[in-house]
Amino acid sequence: MKSLTTLALGVIAAVGLLFVQVSDLAAGERYGKQKVVYHINYNGGADDKKYRGAMRNIQNHINAVGADNMEIKVVLHGNGLGLLMSAKENSKVKGAVVSLKSQNVGFHVCNNTLKGRKISYENDLFDVYEEDIIPSGVAELSYLQQKGYTYIKP
User: Fold this and answer.
1) pLDDT tens digit string along 31-69?
2) Residue 105's closest CA among 34, 7, 31, 12?
3) Of 29, 80, 120, 133, which is the most buried if we count CB atoms within 10 A?
4) Is 124 exposed, middle or buried (0-12, 13-18, 19+ CB in 10 A)?
5) Beta strands 34-40 and 70-76: pairing type?
6) Protein fold of 33-152
7) Rounded Cα distance, 151 and 154, in Å
8) Three-state DSSP state, 75
9) 151 Cβ partners below 8 Å, 6+ apart?
10) 37 and 73 Cβ atoms separated by less than 8 Å
11) Please, are residues 113 and 88 in contact by the beta-carbon 8 Å criterion?
């Protein structure tokens, strides 16, 4: 009886894996390779709900197309830097940022906003390094669109 249960679980797992592989293949065939820039320049609102929603949209996009088929950049400027400020304290935002970064999503921070608001990327923002800083958020959006990135504002 025990070996029959083990066999049944093995068959269920194999069918589940096959379904995941087939659905991944179908998504890859349907959507192909994508380059996308997400634009965040707004406040997160109560409990960072808007930021968490934006991160969920990005994850859903990756789930639909497949991380191997995606090149995603998130451009943050103005009030959008609040997302990485909140990630220092809000574990839900932090978890979403860490998860997206582990899937090669790049977060780009506007230097104009850092200077204008006297924000230290090293002290005030979560997990930002010098190479993440871009000269201008709006100029970066235009530049990436010229390079073939699709623009999305969640």
Assistant:
1) 999 999 999 999 999 999 999 999 999 999 999 999 999
2) 34
3) 80
4) middle
5) parallel
6) Hypothetical Protein Ychn; Chain: A, (3.40.1260)
7) 10
8) strand
9) 36, 37, 39, 141, 144, 145
10) yes
11) no
